[in-house]
Design goal:
Largest sheet: 2 strands, antiparallel
Distance between the termini: 43 Å
Radius of gyration: 18 Å
Strand order of the largest sheet: 1-2
Number of helices: 5
Shape: flat
Order of helices and strands: HHEEHHH
Structural class: mainly alpha
């Protein structure tokens, strides 16, 4: 992942996460508060500290958002990804991942169709 190349030391603060993901401080804190991205650790001053694993996790979340997945769906997919990381043979997690893959393809195709329609609309406006 290109975004991760500059963040290979395994301890990042929220500003590093903002820079690596393009998400706002507020968004990252929100994902922490709802349990999607709990900070790996907090230092003595209470500041969040994140790892490369946390960065990979938030990049998944960031990718799911424009496809319209809910926070609960994000949590469910991340749980499946975590389960597969622990046990590649976890059939329930694999099935869940496959289901989300199918859903993502359908959602992406719908976005592509809407983008095509928007391009047509813009082109029509330009000819008027």
């Amino acid at each position: 992942m290109e975004e991760m190349e500059d963040f290979m030391d395994d301890s990042m603060h929220i500003g590093d996460m903002v820079e690596a993901t393009g998400l706002s401080h507020r968004t990252i804190r929100h994902y922490d508060e709802v349990g999607l991205l709990p900070a790996s650790t907090r230092n003595e001053g209470g500041f969040r500290s994140y790892t490369n694993s946390d960065l990979r996790r938030i990049l998944v979340i960031r990718s799911m958002k424009p496809l319209g997945f809910s926070l609960e769906e994000m949590r469910e997919l991340l749980d499946a990804v975590d389960a597969l990381a622990e046990n590649q043979k976890d059939q329930a997690a694999r099935a869940k991942l496959d289901d989300y893959l199918r859903q993502a393809v359908v959602k992406r195709d719908k976005l592509a169709l809407n983008l095509e329609r928007a391009d047509t609309f813009i082109a029509d406006l330009r000819t008027k």
